Each structure stands twice: as C-alpha cells, then as structure tokens.
Amino acid sequence: MKFLVCISNVPDTTTKIAFTPDNKEFNKAGVQFVINPWDEYALTRAIELKEAAGSGTVTVLNVGEADTEPNIRKALAIGADDAIRVNAAPQDAYFVAEQIAAVAKEGGYDVILMGKESIDYNGFQVHGMVGEMLGIPTVAPAMKLDLSGNTATLEREIEGGKEIVTVNTPFVASCQQPMCEPRIPNMRGIMTARTKPLKVIPPVGEPARTTVAEYALPPKKQGVKLIPAENAGDLIKLLRNEAKVI
Amino acid sequence: MSVLVVVECAEGEVKKSSLEVASYGAQVAAQLGTTATAIAVGGATEANLASLGEQGITKVLYDAEPRLKEFSNNAYTKLIATAAEQEQATIIVLANSNIGAAVGSRLSVRLKASLATNVVELPKTDGGQFVVKRGAFSGKAFSNVVLSGDRKIIAVKKNSTEARHEAGKIAEVVSFSAQLSDADFADAPTKVVMQEQAGGVLLPEAELVVSGGRGMKGPENWGLIEDLAKALGAATACSKPVSDVDWRPHHEHVGQTGITVSPNLYIACGISGAIQHLAGVNSSKVIVVINKDPEAPFFKAADYGIVGDVFEVLPKLTAAVKELN
Ligand SMILES: Cc1cc2nc3c(=O)[nH]c(=O)nc-3n(C[C@H](O)[C@H](O)[C@H](O)COP(=O)(O)OP(=O)(O)OC[C@H]3O[C@@H](n4cnc5c(N)ncnc54)[C@H](O)[C@@H]3O)c2cc1C
Question: What structural domains does chain B harbor?
C-alpha cells in the first residue's frame, strides 16, 4: 500500500493572529509554525496502517516554500519514509489540490490522507477537489480508518452522528480525532529523518481561483458585566430582557 | 443566470441551517436581479419544500430517488451539477456543513467554479468584483475573498445570517431527475448511527449551548450542566480535556481542534478560556462565563460573568430559568 499524506505548515495554536499594516497578509513575525494538528492524525494513522500490514510506504507531501522544511523533517522523524515538497507558496485550496492531484497521479498512490482542514485558512476543501480531479471517492471528515486488502472502512462524522462508509482504493480521506493518538518524534526518528529523501519539485497547473483582498480581526468585546454569585438568578433576567437571547 | 440553493433535509424537514442558506441565496439573487431555485437533498415532504417560498425561493427541484436520503458525495455532486446546468446557475449556495462543504469542494472542480467556505455575510458585488467575508484562523480572524470566474460556490456558516421569513409564500415544487445509477452511490454509507442527544438538541445546529470544562471535576457532575441545558432547550458541549478523558463524548468537544459553534448564547462553566477553546466559540453572539477564578482569561472574551463556584451557581441558574418559563 502506498500512502500519500499531505501536511500543511500552520501557525502554532497559541498564536495571536495579526496582519501586515495593509491587512493583506498574515504577519509571520515571531510566529512559530507547526504541522497542522489535523494532519498529524493522517500521518500517524498512515504509519500505523503501514506497520500493521508489514509493508508499504508513507510519503509526506507539502506545498510550500523552503521555510516549511523543518516541519517536513519532523514528519519524517515521526515515521514517514520520504517526502516531496512542491516549491510554491500555497495560493488557494484549488491551487494546492492541483499540486496534490498531480503528485498522486504520478506516484500511483493508493491512499491519500490529509487533515480535515488547515487551522489557518479553514477551507475544508482540498480533499474533495483532489478526489474530483482524480475521479476517486473522498471521505471527509473521517474519524476512523481501517484497511483490509484494498477495502477501507471509515467512519465519517455528520452533524449529530456518524456514517460507516466502505470504499476501495484509491481514495482520499480527510482525518480528525479520534482516529489515533498522534505520535511525536523520538530520538532515533530524528536522527534517521536527516538522511531520508526529500524531493523538491516545481508547481503545475492553473492559477488560483480565489484571492484574499483583506484580512480583518473580530470586533472587540465591550467588556464583561459581572453579576454577584449570590444573585446568580439575575443573570437569567438579563439574558431575557437585555441580551434578548432566551 | 440564476442562483441555485442546496437545501439539506432530515426526517421530512428542511434543516434550520438550510433555511438560512435559502434566504441567503434568495438575497444574493435579489442583489443580482435574478431568482433563486432550490435543490433538495435528504428527503423532505412536498409541503415543507413548498414553504421554502417563505425564504424567497421561487422553485424547488426534487429528485425522488430514495437513495438520496443518505449522503453520497458522488451522487450529490452529480445531482447538483445536473441541476446547476439545467438552471444555468452562476451562483450555488450550500450550508457549511459536513455535507454542504464536502460536496461543494467536488462541485467546484466539476463545474470549474471558484469556492468559498465558512462564509459569514452576503457578498459585496460593487466595483465589478465578487467579494465574500469568511471566517479564517479558526475563528480568530476573517478574510475578504475575491471569487473569480463565471461560476461561484458559497458555503454559508451556520447562524451567521438570519433566516428570513415571509409567511404564507409558496415555492413551486418540480420533480427532477439526474438519472442516478448504482455506480453513483458507490460511496454511500453502509450504516448511519445517530447520537443520543441530551434534551434532543443537536450541538452544531443549537442556538443555545451550555458547556462544561475541567472545573466540573468529573462526569458525575454533568447533571448540573444537563439540567440547565434542558431548562433552556440548549445543547451541551465541553472543552477538549473533558472529552480527552472521556467524561463526555468527542462530538461535544468545541474549539480549534473540535467543532466551531456560533450560537446566540454560549454559557461556559468551569472553563478557563484557553486561546484554542476561544477559537471555537468566540463568534457566539453572547458569551456567559462562570468561573471561580476572577483572573480566568475567559472573562476577557465574555459579555456576562459570574465569579463563583459552578456547583453553587448552576442550580440557581436552572431554578431561575424554570421560574421564568
Ligand atoms: C494543539 C492544541 C489544540 C487544542 N485544541 C483545543 C480545543 O479545540 N478545545 C479546547 O477546549 N481546548 C483545546 N486545547 C487545550 C487548551 O489549551 C486548554 O488546555 C483547555 O481548553 C482547557 O480546558 P478547561 O478550560 O476545561 O480546563 P482548565 O484549563 O483546567 O480550566 C478549568 C477552569 O475551571 C475553573 N474551576 C475549577 N473549579 C471550579 C469551580 N468549582 N467552579 C467554577 N470554576 C471552577 C478553574 O478556575 C479553571 O479556570 C488545545 C491545546 C493544544 C495544544
């Protein structure tokens, strides 16, 4: 089984979001970038399935500029066998999907995994686009993934429940908890990651279909109105008469 | 040129989020000087579909194929693409749900359309550009995105736009067939399992949410959360560590790595307000925080707060709600 795991490079979850003065770009100054937390489920599950089968390969793919390489090496340290970086700034979901589809086609991957969405752009788009470009099924968002031969059984989250879905390889799944316990690199992994192959290739395809005109921060709260604990019941009156939400 | 709206139905009824989507679509149609047609998925009664007229829909396409009751991304994509071609739709509006957004992403490739998910406002179409505002950075920011090309797909975030309502208006329900075959349903679920809902309110669709954190001390104390939720008709939720240790099921976990909610009211009980938690809830219209620590960061993001012990405060709130009703 050949696994392709797509990872994106995102600001650490504790990042206070700020933009450049013209509000056109995310301000990267002083920000630490990590592997997108959802992608960690995809990566660990691929490694687990490869280990369980006793054969196969896990390739990580990132669309990004050279500054993403530390996180690609981290994915190799966690247990991926090799890596591909498409050397381009990710412009939009469509552009990224084109890159992934091209790599997947070229490499003949059986299982294409990624996180549910990236925590920076929150698209929840790439999985479906890749599936449609390749003409194969997509299961998103998947909470569980098992393989038996060429058949995969997945749990897909729906509002208020889940669906059990069975598909044959090749397919695309976007992953989320509780699929597995994401692994962290150990010392041996970090050592071997240094010499694992990382191929850098140029981007392909059409230009992006969407562009960000401007970013904005949410409006600030007015400040909290405190109600003494003894008179907790007054809160309910305020919610009815002042906030008018109940 | 027209607007096509995808309405999700369950148990015969149009979902609340899809009523919002229908009014959003009708308003976009009005902006562009055209009409909005709906295509229904998931099985609804004809009367419920006809009443989409109240949201401003003029026509509803309905494919009676029984397998469309369950979600199949392949089949839904083909259904909606066929309807879009027939109606010459240039704008397609869906819910930003696990159905709507999933099918929207496939559709964007099939129909060569530009796509924006998680959209929170009506588009701005002045100046020759088509710009939508969408949530980004896990609720910590917004981005205004220019959609290019002749066709555009918009997935609208729940509870971010209001469902309009003009009582008594009726849409024409027209039967429609996308000629779906067995092969189109290859990715259909073999089984669907719905959760038990405390009080029957689904968290992703809820207008009111009562949420508990580690300050609740243990699963045995969740009765306090559930009592208040029940009295209010609210859904229950929790912080990540609470679902990590299985005090509560994973699907109740809200935040950056859980689900994002934007109810009218979010009541946080014994939750500190870590940045990752806030990301999932800070688009709630009104936030109430109950925490015994006056320094808890959540108070900075709150509209109302009580500095106090949840075990004393919660029963008082529940009693006050019961008194009010
Ligand atoms: C990559 C990453 C992703 C994450 N994603 C999420 C996410 O999606 N969602 C999420 O929630 N967290 C997430 N977290 C975790 C987050 O950082 C916090 O650890 C978590 O939100 C804390 O949960 P809590 O507020 O329930 O617990 P705590 O931080 O332990 O807070 C408990 C609070 O309860 C109060 N309290 C205690 N007893 C009482 C009492 N008797 N009465 C009143 N108040 C009381 C305390 O004062 C305290 O403020 C993430 C972390 C990381 C690193």
Answer: 2-185 (3.40.50.620), 198-324 (3.40.50.1220)
What DSSP designation does A110 have?
A: S
**ipTM of the prediction:** 0.95
Residues on chain A touching B194 (C-beta within 8 angstroms): 160-161
Which tens digit of pLDDT belongs to each residue from B219-251? 999 999 999 999 999 999 999 999 999 999 988
DSSP class of residue B12 equals B
Q: What is the pLDDT of residue B296?
A: 97
CB contact under 8 A, B190 and A126: no
Cα B58 to averaged position of ligand 1 atoms, centre (Å): 47
Ligand 1 site, residue B85, Cβ cutoff 6 A: no
Kindly report the protein residue whose alpha carbon is nearest to atom 36 of ligand 1.
B215
Q: Is the shortest distance between the CB of B139 and ligand 1 below 6 Å? A: no
Contacts 24+ apart (CB under 8 A), B81-88: B81/B107, B81/B110, B81/B111, B82/B178, B82/B179, B83/B4, B83/B37, B83/B39, B83/B176, B83/B178, B84/B4, B84/B111, B84/B151, B86/B176, B87/B2, B87/B4, B87/B37, B87/B61, B88/B1, B88/B2
Ordered domains of chain A (ranges, CATH): 2-217 (3.40.50.620)
Distance CA B251, CA B259 (A): 8
Rounded distance between C-alpha atoms, residue B92 and residue B152, angstroms: 6
pLDDT tens-digit series, residues A177-234: 899 999 999 999 999 999 999 999 999 998 899 999 999 998 888 899 999 999 999 9
